[in-house]
Design goal:
62 residues; mainly alpha; elongated
Length: 62
């Protein structure tokens, strides 16, 4: 039994089957925006700099 497939998903799947050359462009776009090398030191510094969130973010109390 096949699950639900949205119109958009179906369109993109069929389009990618017809345009296999676009896989490389898809990979480039993903690398540009998402696949970034991770640096443990930068991650640690970011975590140390976090400020605890207030219980109610719009509170005027300090």
């Amino acid at each position: 039994m096949a699950g639900y497939e949205s119109e958009h998903t179906k369109f993109m799947r069929e389009w990618m089957e017809k345009h296999p050359e676009e896989r490389e462009e898809q990979k480039k776009g993903r690398a540009l925006w998402w696949d970034k090398p991770q640096d443990a030191e930068t991650t640690r510094q970011y975590a140390e700099g976090q400020v605890p969130a207030k219980a109610y973010p719009y509170s005027t109390e300090a």
